[in-house]
Amino acid sequence: MSQVDITPDVLEYKPPLTEQSTEYVTISNGSDEAIAFKVKTTAPKFYCVRPNAAVVAAGETVQVQVIFLGLPESPAKDAKCRDKFLVITLPAPYDLGEKAVAEAWSDLETEFGKQAVSKKIKVKYGHVAALVEGITGKSETAEDNKKEQNSRDSQVANAEEDEEEEEPKTAVEERQPLAREQKSPKVVKEEKTSASTGNVPEDNKESKTVANAGSNIVPIALVVILALVIRWYFF
After folding, report:
1. Cα–Cα distance between 198 and 195 in angstroms, integer?
2. Nearest CA among 204, 203, 200 for reference residue 192
């Protein structure tokens, strides 16, 4: 019986744990005689084992389906499964006839109980590590994507601000020649203003002075002639 190998040590069921899933127990018989096995569990309501009991011929291997029926609701992330399986093997040196292994098991156990080989198999919920790692990975990926998007938005915003700053500079440069051109009409306006207020140019002033002098000579000449006539008349 030392040549009987039972694997694995742990059955790991992955999420979603509310759904049915299947794992396998392998029983290899390396001895030169047939063996019988039986599988027991601490939580029969949550598992279905096929076959639950059977014979393994010499040199053969049998895979046993251990079907997890699913939980009513998902367990907490830190939940630990305490379910266990016990696989017991006994020698089956003779033909059991029409009896099933389950029916003949008590007889085999009574006769070959001291040669029994058993192995305990634990059950583990895979979500404790897998889900936490998956959620953490997704969170980090989402955060990286968000940072990258924010960086792109910031670059676009900075580019738009630079364009807005360049546009006013160009507008100011275009307005400067216009401002220079608008200054020259002020001179003309000043000249017009000076003309309206009596500030006549120097040439106009000279002509007006000569005209004023000519107009003053006529009255003087009349006064002189009148004085000569009076003198001649009385003297």
Report:
1. 5
2. 200
Distance CA 233, CA 57 (A): 186
pLDDT along the chain (235 residues), means of 10: 89 96 97 95 97 95 97 91 97 82 92 94 78 52 72 70 56 53 48 46 53 65 80 68
For the chain, the C-alpha Rg in angstroms (whole number) is 60
Nearest to 48 by CA among 67, 63, 64: 67
d(CA 82, CA 46): 12
Structural tokens at position 158: 């900075």
Superfamily of domain 4-125: Immunoglobulins (2.60.40.10)
Q: Is residue 49 a contact partner of residue 30, using CB atoms and an 8 Å limit? A: no
Give CA–CA dist 232/57, Å, rounded: 185
